[in-house]
Specification:
about 325 residues, alpha+beta, 6-stranded antiparallel β-sheet, two-stranded antiparallel sheet, 9 helices, 10 strands, about 40% helix
C-alpha cells in the first residue's frame, strides 16, 4: 500500500519499490517508535526497478529490510557491510548477489540467494530482475539464476586492465631475476596469460597475453590448481584430460594430485619442460587475490637451475605478496 503523497515533492518514490513503474511521487520515511538518525533521502528510479539509497542510517524493520550486520553474519562471506563508507546499498547488494552466483559455481534459486544474502525475497527478486534485464544475469527455464553473457566483455577488459595495472610488478621481477615474468589467471578450466615483461637476454621466453593453456603442464597452472581443494582440482583435470606436450608432461591425474600437495607444502610450482622442451619455469599463486592469479618466471633450462631457483623463488613470493597487498588496498579504497 502506498503512503500518501506529499505535495511539492514530485519526482521521487519510496526506496523499497512500492511505486509502480513510471511513478513520480515522493514518500517520506515511515515513523519509527525508536530513535531515528542519519536519514537524508532515498529515491527509486522506478522505471528500472533499481533503488538508490543515499546516507540512510535508520531502523529498517518497518521497510522489511535486513540490517547489514545481520546480512553479513547470515552469508558468512566477509563481504563489506551494505551501505558502508558512503556506498550505495542497492548496488552493493547487487554485486554481492553476482559474487554469490560466481562462488556457487553454477545456478542458484531465488530462495537460495535470499538465504545466502540474508535479504528478503522481494528485495532479491527486484535486484535479480534488474540484472536479468541488463544481461548480467540469465534466468533458466527452471527459474534458477546464472551469470549472464554480458559479464564476459567486462571480464575480458578487466583482465587487460589488470595486466596493465600490475605490469610494474612484473618489470620489478625481471630486474630482480633477469628472466621473463608472467601474470596469469585461472579462467574456467584454462589458464590465460594476461601480462608479460620479457627478459633482457637475447634467448628468452615469449608468451602473448591472451594465450590460453591447460593448467596441468605449466608452472602457473599447477600453482593455481594447488589452491583448489583436491576434489575440485581432480574434477577439472578429468573434464579436460591431460594430454602430453613433451616427454615430461604429467598425464596421470593421481600423480599430479600428489604433486599438488608438494606444491602446497613448498609454496611454489615448477614446470620441468612440460609445456615446451628446454624451458623451465617457477611460479607462485598470488595470495588472497579476488580471482585465481599466479606469477612466474621462465627461461631456458641452462639458466633456470636449482641455484637460480634459490634466488628466484623468494623474489616471486615477495612480489606475489606485494601484488596481493596492492589489490587489497585498492579494494579498501
Amino acid at each position: 500500500m502506498k503512503r500518501p503523497a506529499v505535495p511539492g515533492q514530485e519526482g521521487r518514490a519510496w526506496t523499497e519499490g512500492l511505486a509502480e513503474p513510471g511513478a513520480s511521487t515522493w514518500y517520506p520515511p515511515a515513523r519509527h517508535h525508536g530513535p531515528q538518525t542519519g536519514y537524508r533521502r532515498a529515491f527509486c528510479y522506478a522505471n528500472y526497478f533499481f533503488c538508490i539509497m543515499e546516507d540512510v542510517n535508520e531502523s529498517t524493520q518497518d521497510a522489511g529490510l535486513v540490517p547489514a550486520s545481520r546480512a553479513s553474519s547470515a552469508n558468512g562471506s566477509g563481504r563489506a557491510a551494505a551501505g558502508a563508507a558512503g556506498g550505495v546499498q542497492s548496488i552493493e547488494r547487487a554485486f554481492d548477489l553476482l559474487e554469490m552466483l560466481a562462488d556457487a559455481g553454477g545456478a542458484l534459486g531465488l530462495s537460495e540467494l535470499s538465504t545466502l544474502s540474508g535479504l528478503p525475497l522481494p528485495t532479491v527478486h527486484r535486484l535479480m530482475r534488474t540484472l536479468v534485464n541488463r544481461g548480467y544475469v540469465r534466468q533458466e527455464a527452471s527459474r534458477r539464476y546464472t551469470l549472464g553473457s554480458r559479464l564476459i566483455r567486462l571480464g575480458e577488459i578487466s583482465s587487460q586492465m589488470l595486466g596493465t595495472w600490475l605490469r610494474p610488478f612484473l618489470a620489478q621481477l625481471v630486474r630482480l631475476t633477469g628472466e621473463t615474468a608472467n601474470l596469469a589467471m585461472l579462467d574456467g578450466d584454462e589458464v590465460v596469460y594476461i601480462a608479460q615483461v620479457p627478459s633482457p637476454h637475447s634467448m628468452r621466453m615469449f608468451t602473448e597475453p591472451g594465450r590460453r593453456v591447460q593448467p596441468h603442464c605449466t608452472a602457473v597452472g599447477k600453482a593455481l590448481l594447488a589452491q583448489l581443494p583436491p576434489g575440485e582440482a581432480r574434477a577439472l583435470l578429468e573434464r579436460d584430460g591431460m594430454p602430453a606436450y613433451t616427454p615430461t608432461t604429467i598425464t596421470d591425474p593421481d600423480l599430479l594430485i600428489a604433486h599438488l600437495e608438494v606444491i602446497r607444502k613448498q609454496g611454489y610450482a615448477v614446470d620441468e619442460g612440460e609445456q615446451e622442451v628446454g624451458v623451465r619455469c617457477f611460479a607462485v599463486a598470488v595470495p588472497d587475490a579476488p580471482g585465481s592469479l599466479a606469477i612466474s618466471t621462465s627461461g631456458p633450462q641452462a639458466r633456470m637451475t636449482d641455484d637460480a631457483a634459490a634466488r628466484i623463488v623468494p623474489a616471486l613470493q615477495r612480489t606475489a605478496r606485494e601484488i596481493s597487498e596492492t589489490i587489497a588496498a585498492e579494494g579498501a579504497g
